């Protein structure tokens, strides 16, 4: 059996690690299969993929990134027929094609002609014109669809006859959770992990810290871990904002880490103050796997991750005042959340452990291989999806 897996990235951020885990599930399910991985360029993702893929091939992909749209809509169109032709050849030689995002336009255009062999896994919630383009492209492909959250499914408004499946990203069990460690006798350790971008809300976090009274701020140690995607100016802007707010003593900035486990082991609380919709929120789930309750924005798929007031907290997106108030309560009332670490770990085990995700993914792949539709609704794995968060 020949499987082709296509990914738009090359780093080791959340979507990259999710892709690696999916390829690993394929290898465990079909140990003798030939699995080709297609990437746009070499990067940190290659090393872990080499452990599970048969071949890793670097080829030009027609990726719809917002900043590249003007180029793609003009001179880039000249390369599109060649890219689609290359995708068609790969699909013709494959029994199963897995496309790990809706932004790889050449493969989704080609999928129309091999729709009974192809599955697209959607991890993004685009906005405006980009959403219209990706929604149209996905419908054109007519292939099986896996959504990583209900929020993502709603954003793409799929054909009711082929609504796709919601399968939450599975996160590998990191082992024994940390347990409750904070009792107010040292600085509260906050972790913000992820790419520096307008979406992730590093600026909101800095504003929230600046709003805190100095006495409270001195009781917080914040790590912002991550780098900008080929955008050094954005990193300089963040560094300048921290200095201008007088927060150099409170905030430690660290570069992207291929293995973030040491940061999770250090942290008491994870903070995901996203300004724009996250399709799910892998960092929040990873934190819960370690027994770390997260503070997340009430937007996109993040409310599906956290049970507000039980395993973590929701705050309005972009509201640095509300975030500051939540941080103040965490610092000054540690006794109010002593049960949250254990609750966060339980929620991870019940909903986001990798076994449930693997079962849902493999069920969809088997339908494609059996020649049946991969678009019928289905609960994740053998369990059920959590209830919609109340508003």
TrEMBL record:
Pfam families cross-referenced by the UniProt entry: Glycos_transf_1
Residues covered by the Glycosyl transferase family domain: 188-346
InterPro entries referenced in this protein's UniProt entry, alphabetically: Glyco_trans_1
Entries under Gene3D superfamilies matching the protein: Glycogen Phosphorylase B
Transmembrane segments: none
Region forming the signal peptide: none
Protein name listed in UniProt: D-inositol-3-phosphate glycosyltransferase
């Amino acid at each position: 059996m020949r499987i082709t897996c296509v990914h738009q990235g090359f780093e080791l951020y959340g979507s990259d690690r999710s892709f690696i885990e999916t390829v690993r599930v394929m290898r465990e399910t079909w140990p003798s299969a030939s699995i080709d991985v297609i990437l746009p360029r070499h990067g940190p993702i290659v090393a872990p993929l080499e452990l599970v893929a048969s071949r890793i091939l670097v080829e030009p992909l027609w990726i719809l990134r917002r900043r590249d749209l003007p180029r793609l809509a003009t001179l880039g169109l000249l390369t599109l027929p060649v890219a689609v032709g290359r995708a068609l050849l790969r699909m013709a030689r494959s029994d199963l094609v897995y496309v790990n995002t809706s932004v790889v336009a050449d493969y989704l255009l080609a999928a129309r002609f091999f729709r009974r062999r192809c599955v697209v896994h959607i991890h993004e919630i685009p906005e405006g014109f980009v959403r219209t383009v990706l929604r149209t492209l996905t419908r054109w492909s007519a292939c099986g669809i896996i959504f990583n959250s209900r929020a993502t499914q709603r954003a793409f408004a799929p054909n009711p006859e082929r609504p796709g499946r919601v399968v939450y990203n599975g996160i590998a069990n990191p082992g024994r959770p940390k347990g409750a460690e904070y009792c107010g006798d040292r600085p509260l350790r906050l972790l913000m992990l992820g790419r520096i971008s307008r979406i992730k809300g590093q600026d909101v976090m800095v504003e929230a810290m600046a709003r805190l009274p100095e006495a409270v701020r001195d009781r917080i140690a914040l790590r912002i871990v991550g780098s900008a995607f080929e955008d050094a100016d954005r990193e300089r802007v963040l560094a300048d904002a921290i200095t201008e707010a007088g927060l150099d003593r409170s905030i430690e900035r660290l570069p992207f880490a291929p293995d973030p486990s040491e940061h999770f082991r250090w942290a008491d609380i994870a903070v995901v103050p996203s300004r724009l919709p996250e399709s799910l929120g892998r960092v929040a789930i990873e934190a819960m796997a370690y027994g770390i309750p997260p503070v997340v924005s009430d937007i996109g798929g993040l409310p599906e991750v956290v049970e507000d007031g039980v395993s973590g907290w929701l705050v309005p997106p972009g509201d640095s005042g509300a975030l500051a108030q939540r941080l103040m309560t965490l610092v000054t009332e540690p006794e109010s959340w002593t049960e949250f670490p254990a609750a966060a770990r339980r929620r991870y085990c019940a909903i986001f452990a990798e076994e449930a995700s693997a079962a849902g993914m493999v069920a969809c792949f088997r339908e494609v291989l059996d020649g049946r539709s991969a678009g019928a609704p289905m609960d994740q794995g053998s369990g059920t999806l959590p209830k919609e968060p109340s508003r």
